[in-house]
Amino acid sequence: MKRAIVLALSIILALTMAAPTVLAQGNGGAPEDVSGTIPPEDVAKFFPGHCSFPIQLELSGKGKVITLPDGRRILTSPGLDVTVTNVDNGEQATFNITGTLHETTNLETGEVTTVVTGRNLLFDPEAGVVLTIGEFTYVFDRKGNLIQAFEGNGQVIDVCALLG
User: Fold this and answer.
1) pLDDT in the model for residue 27
2) How many Cβ atoms sit within 10 Å of the Cβ of residue 67?
3) What's the whole-model pTM score?
4) What is the distance of C-alpha 16 from the center of its chain?
5) What are the b/e assignments for 129-159, b being 16+ CB within 10 Å?
6) 4 inside domain
7) What is the domain count for the chain?
8) Nearest to residue 35, comparing CAs of 55, 19, 46, 54?
């Protein structure tokens, strides 16, 4: 299924802000616990996509950022679950988000290509909050402008519609 999405972030990327210890561990270390709560005000502040209502994220599991010698990054989240709560009505949905994000920077052009595989919770200013299952790619230029819209093969589930 193809779907144009302006900007997408994997929830595991957000963990680099929410749990800085994940970045501090060496590439050889095992994934670390990233369990915790991201309150609605932080979701609104750090994530470009949102629902028409405030949401809270409760994480349970492990995550890790691996930086390779050539500058590529792999963000992985084995055994990670997230519960997304509509703060206004109390509706909740829990998702297993054990996907992986592969980020490659073209050193000549500065373009950053991101490939997400597996199950990922992504945020987008137009699409809102979505669960993707499959493989999807998007590309940004060196200034952070989207130059290749989110596309790929798999399933896209509108989390906001489930909780609204």
Assistant:
1) 66
2) 13
3) 0.80
4) 11
5) bbbbbbebbbbbeeeeeeeeebebeeebeeb
6) no
7) 1
8) 19
